[in-house]
Amino acid sequence: MKVSIVPFQDQYSKYFYELNYDWLNEYFYVEDYDEKVLKNCKEEIIDKDGYIFFAIYNNSVVGTMALIPRENGVYELNKMAVNKELRGNGIGNQLINFIIDFAKKKKYKSVILYSNSVLKNSIHLYNKFGFKKINIENNTPYKRSDIKMELLLSNL
User: Fold this and answer.
1) Which of 19, 58, 96, 152 has a Cα-to-Cα distance from 87 of 20 to 30 A?
2) Of 2.40.128.110, 3.40.630.30, 3.40.190.10, 3.30.420.10, which CATH number belongs to 4-155?
3) In 3D, which of 152, 58, 64, 36 has the Cα closest to residue 104?
4) How many H helices and E strands in the chain?
5) Within 13 A of 107's CA, how many CA atoms are on the CB side?
6) Which DSSP helix (H) or strand (E) runs through 139?
7) pLDDT digits over 94-120, tens only?
8) Can you say how many angstroms the Cα of residue 12 is from the centroid of all Cα atoms in its chain?
9) SS3 107
10) pTM
């Protein structure tokens, strides 16, 4: 299933909220930080030099993800979600490929992400694209995170 990946547009904000909220509720719960970012994605991500992208299929938003600046040249892959009925169709692969290409063109040093070890499919996907497990700090942005991974772009 080939999707188009487009940058943030105000009209898609509700899909950013809905897709991520559904995913979080399916696997975990929505933390206060999540709620703040999801409800105010333009202010919390775009206006802070981050990026949000949407996967479009047949004129419908079927997936989303964000890149949030964390430190000089390091961005966090964040809030990646795919419509539940369409998972397993390669949309996640296309989103990650897009992010890696985007980050390389921007000359970022690395892309990091936080995850949880119960998400076996997600961890497998990240490993497939070259993300490596690194030490996780004690004060992660998310209570549910027990894994931190990084993709060093200079290695690509």
Assistant:
1) 152
2) 3.40.630.30
3) 152
4) 5, 7
5) 0
6) none
7) 999 999 999 999 999 999 999 998 888
8) 16
9) coil
10) 0.92
